[in-house]
Amino acid sequence: MRRARRPLTTTALLAATALTLAACSPGSDDSSGESGSGEGGTTVTVRLWDEVAAEAYETSFDAFTEQNPDITVEVEVIPWADYWTQLPLDVQSGDMADIFWTNTSNFGTYADNGTLIDIDEALGEDHDEWEQSVVDLYTRDGVNYGVPQLWDSIALFYNAELVEEAGIDVEDLQWRPGAGEGDTLLEAATALTTDSEGRHPGEDGFDGGARETYGFNSQADLQAIYVDFLAQNGALFQDPETDGFAFDSPEGIEAFQYLVDLVNTHEVAPSAADTNVNGDFSRDLFVQGDLGLFQSGPYSLPHIAENADFEWGIAPMVGGPEGRIGVVHGVAAVGNAESEHLDATTEVLRWLGSAEGQAPLGETGAAFPGAVDAQQGYIDYWAEQGVDVSVFVDAAQEPTAPSPIGAEINAGSNVITPIFQDMFLGAIPVEEALAQAQEEGNAEMGIE
Asked: Considering only CA atoms, which of 306, 266, 257, 259 is closest in space to residue 286?
């Protein structure tokens, strides 16, 4: 059993690796194309959206400049709220940074329009030193455009006290369509759900409106819940050939029906009336000791470690008919193909892909580094806090489901999200909701 007690102290860490990128500061504008530091050297600009990561990068780039005295690296932070609106303006005006963070939902547009440096061409194609699942996320039409920086996978946080009291083995929880043969998740979630009188769902007098504990965080959560359940039932979220939505299938209907039933039929998950308006509602329930099983990623770890005052642990994610298949998401550093000093920019990208360059990210507990040899620093940091994060590493080595991708995926997601939320509320039948969401989402993305 992977078990951890609440750390006595934790540092301020990255809020989430559902990470995106920050817009980019202007590259140096020296007519020589290879200067701009004010001292005859070259200044390369790197932009991201997180202050904690920026501090780690500052440490990293100090070491880089010691080894490359002719190159200075400037780190600039654009808050997440402004990042994606500023980025296209910078691209259009020619003021984009030399290197910047991106996520899978947004990089496709810039890869397709020639904005990004071809990493295979600049740094070579063989990179066993990088987390392969993240490399795959930023490979488009056979070309890699991203240097992996941070990543997260999915696992199952559990309340050890509630789980022990209910007699549940959290190491191999399984779901099956319709809660059929082999399903153990529903039984576990039911045992963990109680009303104010201690009754469980299905027992006489159970009052779903007076629940005091909940079993599992079934909700309209793309990364931690429904893309995983789709993949585990042999369904697709997107067609890999067209980037179009493909969840409206018999297998997709089965997966979503199971999740919706956990909320509305079996009453073992929080109401969508709460989780739709507050994506952190389930996490907060868990921290309060009122949710037994919370499927999420390491982006939830800092908040749980800082605030949960009960014994908790991390187990493998729930498995399905096709096995344990979870979303791995990552942030990549991408290079500006229009940089006025491509040679220096390439050297900084090379550093950003090295274990030495990423070591400060892991050693501060900020996130899992994309360089494999730098990941031990993150593992050691959390081990010192009494937390075993190896289950996340294991999950990244299992079969994975891709994060949303495509030049128009954000537009499509804006269409399907409210439909999914209504579906989890029980306002639209699952089969009807998926058909509507797929049709309207693909139309918004211009995909037939």
From this structure: 306
Residue 252 φ/ψ, nearest 5 degrees: -65, -40
Which residues are 76's β-sheet partners?
47
**Nearest residue to 317 (alpha-carbon basis) of 339, 297, 345:** 297
Low-confidence ranges of the chain (pLDDT < 70): 1-40
CA distance 328 to 189: 25
In whole angstroms, what is the distance from residue 91 CA to residue 307 CA?
Answer: 41
pLDDT of residue 14: 38
Q: What share of the chain is helix, strand, coil (3-state, %, to 5)?
A: 45, 15, 40
Say how far apart CA 253 and CA 255 lie, in whole Å.
5
Residue written as token pair 């399984």 = 174
CA distances in angstroms from 384 to 3, 59, 310, listed in the order given: 13, 21, 18
The per-residue pLDDT for 403 is 85
Residue 200: how many other CB atoms lie within 10 Å: 18
72 pairs with which residues across the strands? 43
Res 18: pLDDT: 37
d(CA 355, CA 194): 47
Q: Which residues contact 353 (CB under 8 A, 6 or more apart)?
A: 123, 127, 129, 130, 147, 148, 333, 370, 371
DSSP E strand stretches across 284-341? 291-296, 312-316, 326-327, 329-335
Distance CA 5, CA 159 (A): 11
Phi-psi region of 311 (alpha: psi -120 to 50; beta: other; left: phi over 0): beta
In one-letter notation, the amino acid at residue 289 is: G
Q: What is the spatial distance between Cα 29 and Cα 250, in angstroms, rounded to a whole number?
A: 56
pLDDT for 101: 97
Would you tell me how many other CB atoms lie within 10 Å of the CB of residue 11?
A: 13
- Residue 151, token pair as written in the block: 């990543």
> What confidence tens digit (pLDDT) does each residue in 151-160 have?
999 999 999 9
DSSP one-letter string for 237-288? SB-TTT--B---SHHHHHHHHHHHHHHHTS--S--HHHHTT-TTHHHHHHHT
Structure tokens at 148: 């992996």
Alpha-carbon gap, residue 357 to 315, rounded angstroms: 30
Q: Is 379 helix (H, G, I), strand (E, B) or coil?
A: helix
Nearest to 436 by CA among 422, 425, 266: 422
Place of tokens 């980037």: 243
Q: How far apart are CA 239 and CA 102, in angstroms?
A: 22
Strand ranges (E), 217-325 = 291-296, 312-316
Task: Note the pTM of the prediction, 2 decimals.
Answer: 0.86
Residue with tokens 């990068």: 57
The total of other beta-carbon atoms located within 10 Å of residue 240's CB is 10
**Given this model, what pLDDT does residue 10 score?**
29
Q: Are 185 and 318 in contact (CB under 8 A)?
A: yes
